[in-house]
Amino acid sequence: MKRLLGLFFELTALKKGPQDIPVSSSVIQIVAGAYLVINLTILQLNNDWGVAALQILVDLLLMVVFTWPLLYFSGWTNRLQQTLLALMGADAVINFFALPALASLNHQPTDLGFFAMLLLMLWHWLVIGHIYRHALERPLFMALGLAFLYLLLSSQLMEALFPVTTLEQG
């Protein structure tokens, strides 16, 4: 467990790639569990459990629907499990570090909280690009473009399916 956690910290520090992640049922359970718990914790700040669980399901579905064709057309479908594990594990690590900033912004928005979230979003983008670079064996610039497209599609899909309501709206 400690070794696996270290591996994902190295992945988010851009020192390891998805090819370094072992694929086994126990690794899948641990990574999926961490991804689920951390994302449920974050999403539950503003939603009930049912909506949060549905958002996670949509996020996972988009992760697969976006990643599989990239790997398929690059001829690397055998890398799907490692790539998805890398994406989920990296997301869990980055979101773990985002918890204090998100909780702070939920309670009392500050410039520091917004700046922290901006840095975390940039880090997330860079890590996803790093994962796609290794999985697809493409230049970092292209992988960052794909990562940006993935994050843009994800945010647009989430906003369309789960619109944020304010007190003025209802």
Notes on the protein architecture:
This protein is mainly α and 170 residues long. It has one domain. It has helices at residues 2-12, 25-43, 49-74, 80-107, 111-136, 140-161. The N and C termini lie far apart (45 Å). The mean pLDDT is 93.
What's this model, at a glance?
With 170 residues, the chain is mainly α. The relative contact order is 0.14.
- The number of E-state strands comes to 0
Largest sheet: none
Helical content (DSSP H or I, runs of 4+): over 70%
N-to-C span: 45 Å
SSE arrangement:
Layout: H1 2-12, H2 25-43, H3 49-74, H4 80-107, H5 111-136, H6 140-161
Sum up the structure in keywords:
mainly alpha, 6 helices, 170 residues
